[in-house]
Amino acid sequence: MTTLLKKESKKEKRLMTQDTIVQGDLLYHAVHGLCRVDQLTKQKQAGKEVRSYSLVPKVTNKMKIRFTITDKDMVASGFHALVTTKEANNILDYFKAGDITAVPRGVEPKALPDFAQDNQTWGLAQALLSFSHDNMEIKDQRKRQMLERSAKGLLTELSFVFKTSLKETAVKVRKSLASASKVNPLVLAAIENACED
């Protein structure tokens, strides 16, 4: 089984094409987790041949979910290659710096609420750092859901990359966030909740 380690373009979203994704590659999604490319098919849509990918979650449940995504919809779907260990360490350093706008070269800073909605790793990291500085109240349900999704998606991906448990990864993230400033208690709770699933 091969792992897709395609370099990022100038924007954080990885431009994945039919030449870079092969059967057996691992792709990650903040909500659905790690998935393996099970099949590649070609279909005719609007008179053009379109390549489709059948993705199977690594952790399956009784429903045996399978995602079928066309080549042109891959980026919009939120599936992407796992970040490298170097990129994961850059995310921890980004948390330690505590500056939301201090993203690495090639990663486009975004305005809230766009951070977490693209399901890309740096977007989730930016959202988590933004929320950690925010005085968010429990009443704002939409922000709370984005916080929970950002924490869960980022912690899960980083735990795969670092090859550590969710709890060990949560400790690293909490430490990194706390080194810059006091962390919003709701962010700490979201990180803790992400470890329980």
Structure explained in plain terms:
This protein has seven helices and four strands, in the order ββββααααααα. It has helices spanning 74-77, 85-97, 114-117, 121-133, 141-162, 166-178, 185-196, and strands at residues 26-29, 33-45, 48-57, 67-70. α2 (85-97) packs parallel to α6, α5 (141-162) crosses α7 (185-196) and α6 (166-178) runs antiparallel to α7.
Summarize the entry for a quick read:
The protein is an alpha+beta fold. The chain contains seven helices and four strands; from the N terminus they run ββββααααααα.
How many domains make up the 3D coordinates? 2
Poorly predicted regions are: 1-18, 112-117
Predict the CATH topology of the largest domain.
Methane Monooxygenase Hydroxylase, Chain G, domain 1
* Beginning-to-end CA distance, first to last residue: 27 Å
Give the class-level CATH name of the largest domain: Mainly Alpha
Number of strands: 4
